[in-house]
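Quick illustration, no need to memorize.
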Amino acid sequence: PIHGVPSSLPSPGHCPLLVGFSTMPHADPYVLQDSLVKEPPTTLWESLTYLGPGFILSASIVGSGELIATTLVGARAGFILMWFIIFSCLVKVAVQIEFGKHAISSGESTMAALNTLPGPRLRRVNWSIWTWLVLMLAKMLQVGGIVGGVVLAAVEVFPMLETMPARGVAAYAVAFSVSMLVYRGYYLLIERAALIMLGAFTLFTVASLVALQSTELAISGGDFASGLLPSIPSDTTLLLIAMGAFGITGVGGDEIMAYNYWLIEKGYAAYTGPKNDSADWERRAKGWIRIMVLDALLAMVAYTAMTVMFYLLGAAILHRQGLIPEGKELINTLGEMYTQSLGPWAKSVFVLGAILVLYSTLFAALAAWTRMFSDAFGRLGFYNFQNQQSRRRAIAIAAWTIPAVWATLFLVMENPALMVILGGLATVVILLIVVYAALFFRYCRLDHRLLPSTAYDAALWLSASAIFLVALYVVYDNVYLPSRQFWQP
């Protein structure tokens, strides 16, 4: 039989990587039942044992975006834009929390929630889901590039992989190894593996930053302080680079949409129980939302810290030496950060680390995509997403199909720059859908007993406004300017 989501909601005491999947009574976290309700923890220590969805989110975020994009901004701008990178990580979390609140209070999966948005429908399916499906075609191209990144990093260790057919074998090997980890759909496996991948590369990066302080490229207190002082660079190019990085760093539309599935599979919605008018439900809902906020904020601290470390390495080492990580020399140039701080031996270790961090992005992305695509096709009427066995089968099929498409696109596409542009545009449009949905959930569907503070609403609107402004920039930079150049004689 094909196994899918955990056979029961995991208890916080199950710490080993593969414990607790098939030996417990069956319980579907996507179906709310009174028998599954649980009082939320009241102490901080007990609350920490229920965290986890944010680990998966962080593994996805601290992937190609932070490793490559953030380091690139540091290499080009130096320390001056560090404050803006931190801002880009902090400001978007309010939209993520609003999505999470809706998942916990309603028990709805992401696509079920999007299907309630106002607007036109085709085959009883909301416009937002159809738009998402079209945009994901472009996102396929983008993630195919990450498969390519893993293969190119592997070429540094195994040069024989540079040419066909070895490169093709490597691409499909990478793709299907991710499938092997994800197709069974075990939440606990995904959570623990994401945490291990994130932790391993974090420790290596911290060691590099500490070792850097004993070299001539050490970061001074003045350097660090200059990066924290908000200032707008006079160089327009640097400003555009920073705006571009905003859309990549921190939580994105994909991660926000995926977060609901991890909250549900962790058990937050099931523990809250079916919505009713009782004071007990209100108490549980507020309690589990509080745990979700803690999870989201700690995840934000984790990926913000990693982003700052990547930025500091790029500014301290690459910027001072005029090295810009791009093109085929991307992995080589990034490796210089570690060679300069730890010694020549560190470059090989970095290549393995780069493989790990890019691989963690593939892993977390596939785990999320299997749920989102299965949910979307369920809304389209291909099967019943609420049926646990059918959902398990759909997740397994998606887990083997999607990586094969990624690898194939990497091997056949001859214009990787176009792949990145299309994927970037898709990401921004998805973010706009997510922002619209979050505001709809807040003002049209939120239970009056869960109304937030004025400060929270202000943070939500700041988040929405920042994302909207970045969307305008991306359209200007990637659509208006290229089209203007195209039509000029």
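The domain at 34-487 is CATH 1.20.1740.10 (Amino acid/polyamine transporter I).
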